[in-house]
Write a structure and sequence with these properties.
Layout: H1 2-25, E1 34-40, E2 50-54, H2 55-59, E3 63-68, E4 77-82, H3 84-91, E5 97-102, E6 107-111, H4 112-117, E7 121-123, E8 125-126, E9 129-130, E10 140-142, H5 154-159, E11 164-169
Length: 170
């Protein structure tokens, strides 16, 4: 009887150790619908060679709210979502360029440095409501345009892609 209990305890401890090791080495698996896939020069994955995120996983990253006007929306809006830098850290990104791909295959390149120089977010919400595809969702790159006049240029406007589905780190 004692050896049976000891064997079960050892098996439980081993299982917990393996689970903790997998979680430390990679990302958790999404439980909901995947809305973002990241691949390329990343160290942390949860699928073969890529990191996939559902909404809840993105909401567990460091969030930031930016109040700003944009060329595509009316007036000042409040955008909320994970900081781009938190997302890159979560996947262990080591590249210098992000190839951002929208649902309709529109592609824009964004320097990784932008995500560390400015509090750029992948907005999931506008004025407290989740962004839908018809509202430029599910993810919309938002720079703090009203906080830094240097960001009010075609260069940064062109990097503010919406309906983001994938990011390739190069």
């Amino acid at each position: 009887m004692i050896s049976n209990v000891s064997t079960r305890m050892a098996a439980l401890a081993l299982g917990l150790f393996i689970t903790a090791s997998v979680s430390a080495a990679g990302l958790e698996r999404p439980q909901g619908r995947v809305i973002l896939t990241i691949e390329g020069d990343i160290a942390h994955t949860n699928e073969e060679g890529k990191a996939v995120f559902d909404r809840e996983m993105l909401e567990r990253l460091t969030q930031h709210t930016t109040q700003t006007s944009t060329p595509w929306t009316e007036g000042v809006r409040e955008f909320t979502g994970p900081l781009g830098s938190a997302l890159l850290e979560a996947v262990g990104a080591s590249g210098t360029i992000l190839k951002v791909i929208a649902i309709n295959d529109y592609v824009v390149e964004v320097p990784v440095e932008d995500f560390y120089s400015h509090p750029v977010i992948l907005a999931m919400k506008a004025d407290g409501d989740y962004l839908r595809v018809r509202d430029k969702g599910p993810l919309f790159i938002i720079y703090p345009f009203d906080d830094d006049s240097d960001l009010n240029s075609e260069v940064y406007y062109n990097r503010s892609s919406w309906q983001i589905a994938r990011i390739e780190v190069k």
